[in-house]
Design a protein that fits this description.
Strand content: 5-15%
Number of strands: 4
Structural class: alpha+beta
Shape: elongated
Distance between the termini: 69 Å
Helix content: 40-55%
Low-confidence stretches: none
CATH class of one domain: Alpha Beta
Strand order of the largest sheet: 1-2-4-3
Number of helices: 5
Order of helices and strands: HHEEHEHEH
Largest sheet: 4 strands, antiparallel
CATH superfamily of one domain: Aspartate Aminotransferase, domain 1
Length: 145
């Protein structure tokens, strides 16, 4: 060290600058402990079950198309509607207290172009969601007709 020189560390600490967010670090530790207490396999199983339930409910709705791929899709459920744009669905669901997002093709450019995807609605059910909430989302979509 010298007052007229600066040397970068050769490890990952070179990216640490100034203050640290200790509250966020503590929160992350608590979240990890919480997830481990529940069990990661149990969380995954619940997420897959509740998202499968949502997919089944949405698949029954006329004009709704699911866009998830593969034999074991993730818990995020992507869909579109022939009748309403994703932003309209998102706003209507928000008014009903249901949080979803709208995802532009630019966020998954290669896949979206290959499959000619529209802007899709993304619902992210998690292990703490319950069946009546899935039913409420499907009912809200149904009521948009």
């Amino acid at each position: 060290m010298a007052p007229d020189r600066y040397e970068l560390r050769d490890d990952a600490r070179r990216f640490e600058t100034w203050e640290n967010n200790y509250a966020a670090r503590l929160g992350l530790g608590i979240a990890i402990d919480y997830a481990l207490a529940i069990g990661l396999d149990e969380i995954e199983a619940r997420c897959r079950a509740i998202s499968s339930e949502l997919r089944a409910s949405l698949a029954e709705l006329p004009g709704v198309t699911l866009h998830d791929l593969g034999p074991r899709p993730a818990a995020i459920v992507s869909f579109s509607s022939e009748k309403h744009e994703a932003s309209v669905i998102k706003n209507q669901l928000a008014a009903a207290g249901i949080n979803v997002s709208a995802s532009s093709p630019s966020s998954t450019l290669l896949d979206a172009k290959a499959r000619n995807l529209p802007i899709v609605v993304r619902a992210s059910p998690h292990y703490y969601n319950i069946s009546p909430e899935v039913e409420a989302l499907a009912a809200a979509i149904r009521s948009l007709s």
